[in-house]
Amino acid sequence: MLAPVGAHTALADLEREIAVPGGGPDRLRLVAPPFVPEVRLHLAEDAILWWARMEAAAGRSLPPPYWASVWAGGQALARHLLDHPELAAGRRVLDLAAGSGLVAIAAALAGADRVVANDIDPYAVAAVTVNARANRVDVAATGDDLLDATVPTDLLLAGDVLYEAALAERVLPFLQRAADRGVEVLVGDPDRGHLPPDRLEVVASYPVPTTEPSVDSPVRRVQVLRPR
Ligand SMILES: C[S@@+](CC[C@H](N)C(=O)[O-])C[C@H]1O[C@@H](n2cnc3c(N)ncnc32)[C@H](O)[C@@H]1O
Fold first, then answer.
1. Distance, CA 63 to ligand 1 centroid (Å)?
2. pLDDT digits over 139-149, tens only?
3. How many CA atoms lie within 13 Å of 178's alpha carbon, on the beta-carbon side?
4. Least buried of 71, 146, 190, 227, by fewest C-beta within 10 Å?
5. Which ranges of the sequence are coiled-coil (predicted)?
């Protein structure tokens, strides 16, 4: 059982991590994702080592730091937005399961009117805040679970969120309900085995260089999809 971490604690932890000088694979570094070099993110060279060090310092379990890596699905979606800024320009955007905030930041750089990044991990909420700051864009970060809610937005973005069966079972109806209300929905997905064969159609496909943990191939084929 994870002890709950408050949003303020997580933000203070990340701000301290960023401020303290020093390098090494268990530290955060401000780097450009390989497929989205316009954006810079505070990422761990080795997220597992960062996690272990932070858990040892905190003396308790912490959620896996997905936000400390860039994911292939998010990179493809962010690339797609920057190459097609008209998708986000002037619109209200929600980035679901935002992790580092890469997709949200790309939407802001593409000219979105208002960007909300949502993730249930308080460290991801904090990462969005420090990463938006590093890229000098406005992104509001929220930590509520929105999957049973109706969120007013024009564009709903979901990068690499279909990575677990139980989560995909909640996310796919959430995306479909939004699409049925007229929200434009875009998903970035490298097919982790939970992509429904018939409910989404491919908009674009990208060869994404990946730095994800536990991935052997240096390039993954990633699709950007939308509900049919
Ligand atoms: C693989 S990461 C992808 C992060 C980012 N979208 C990207 O592509 O780089 C998946 C993220 O989903 C978040 N997540 C899991 N369940 C969630 C939920 N119910 N609502 C919002 N975020 C969730 C995790 O905390 C994690 O940060």
1. 11
2. 999 999 999 99
3. 29
4. 146
5. none
pTM comes to: 0.95
Question: For residues 182 and 153, what is the distance between their CA atoms, to the nearest angstrom?
Answer: 10
Indicate whether residue 102 lines ligand 1 (CB < 6 A): yes
Domain ranges of the chain: 7-68, 72-210+220-227
Angle, vertex CA 181, rays to CA 175 and CA 184, nearest 5: 60
> pLDDT of 193-213, one tens digit each?
999 888 999 999 999 998 766
Rounded average pLDDT over 171-198? 95
Q: Ligand 1: does its nearest atom lie under 6 Å from the Cβ of 215?
A: no
User: What's the pLDDT tens digit per position in 95-132?
Assistant: 999 999 999 999 999 999 999 999 999 999 999 999 99
Close Cβ partners of 142 (under 8 Å, ≥ 6 residues apart): 116, 117, 118, 125
